[in-house]
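Now for today's protein.

===
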Amino acid sequence: MRPVDKGAAPAVVFERYQDAEPYLEERLGPYCSFCEMGIRHVPEVEHKEAKSAGGDLTAWDNLLLSCKYCNTRKGTKVRVGDSGKYLWPDQDDTFHAFSYRGDIPVPDEEYFLEAGDEIRGKAYNLYELVGLGNIPIKLGDKDKRYGARSEARNIATGNRQAWEKVKATSERYTYLDQIVELALAYGFFSVWMEIFKDDDEVKSRLIDAFRGTRKSCFTEK
């Protein structure tokens, strides 16, 4: 899950929480803050503490972008004062808390050995909150996150194979630009980072290209 930096609150007063959408998208890109899927239609302004459960309607710290699938599954479960029970991509290192091996993201138990049980609990809470690992096998489940993630993974894998053939040639920079453009088009930042996990050049370009990515989470400790 991509960790993000929204920056300071804009110097405007939001009369409606929907008014925050263009500011969030400008700073974070048109991607779900949770599943990382590219949002091709209208992104939903998500309240970390649900607005119908006492959460602040327009406070910048309470707002993220979300796809309808994550937002619907999250619903009104996080009441005012309960946000501390979860990891949040605009506050925590959510990238290392989850692994994207295969088509289903999972909490990373190896990371929790160092991060501790508190982080582990918060990560699992978030994972369940938005149904991050959901596979739509039940009749009527219209969740498109799994299929879109699988498609992005296939595209990334194909580009990784092609990259290995051209990166030592004069075509390397053109192909590197293509990789970044496809990643931005398909979304799922963490999937691309996993596929290119041992290629620092590509990872650096991806981190720079996805605006709003919190770079401090990728600094070697």
Observations:
- The radius of gyration is 18 Å.
- The beta strands are 44-47, 63-66, 98-99, 106-107.
